[in-house]
């Protein structure tokens, strides 16, 4: 299984509308990626390892696929629409990591 993680840095002054991200943006993502996307998860950052410190990421979105090829084939045709929605909820520059899931809950 492949996990595509999109991490939104929690820099000072960053704008991030978590409600829009969860309700609107992820609905667009689900619609665009269809059955190729096996699951979606969203994490909200709470803190860092140091007490009273800000989380390094405001939020993280995770998308699950059977394979890297499945992700690429489903995302490619919709990349412009999905990425074009970012200004509606954030001014943060996301980081993307694609991983192979070795252990899962």
For the structure shown, list the relevant keywords.
Ethyl tert-butyl ether degradation protein EthD; 105 residues; Alpha-Beta Plaits; globular; single chain; 4-stranded antiparallel β-sheet; alpha+beta; 29% helix
Mean pLDDT: 97
Number of strands: 4
| Helix content bin | 25-40%
Tally of individual domains: 1
Please state the structural category.
Answer: alpha+beta
What is the CATH topology?
A: Alpha-Beta Plaits
Amino- and carboxy-terminal Cα gap: 13 Å
Largest sheet: 4 strands, antiparallel
CATH level-two architecture: 2-Layer Sandwich
Strand content of the residues, in percent? 25-35%
InterPro entries: Dimeric_a/b-barrel, EthD_dom
Organism: Pseudomonas taeanensis MS-3
GO molecular function, one term: oxidoreductase activity
Domain EthD: 19-92
Provide structural commentary:
This protein has about 100 residues and is an alpha+beta fold. It has one domain: Alpha-Beta Plaits (2-Layer Sandwich). Helices cover about 30% and strands about 30% of the residues. The chain has helices at about 20-35, 70-75, 80-85; strands spanning about 1-10, 35-45, 55-65, 95-100. A four-stranded antiparallel β-sheet has the order 2-3-1-4. About 15% of the residues are buried.
């Amino acid at each position: 299984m492949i996990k595509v993680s999109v991490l939104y840095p929690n820099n000072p002054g960053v704008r991030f509308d978590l409600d829009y991200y969860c309700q609107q943006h992820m609905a667009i993502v689900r619609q665009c990626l269809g059955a190729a996307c096996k699951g979606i998860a969203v994490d909200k950052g709470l803190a860092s390892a140091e007490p009273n410190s800000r989380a390094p990421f405001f939020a993280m979105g995770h998308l699950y696929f059977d394979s890297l090829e499945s992700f690429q084939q489903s995302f490619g045709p919709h990349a412009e629409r999905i990425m074009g929605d970012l200004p509606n909820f954030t001014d943060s520059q996301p980081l993307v990591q694609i991983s192979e899931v070795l252990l899962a809950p």
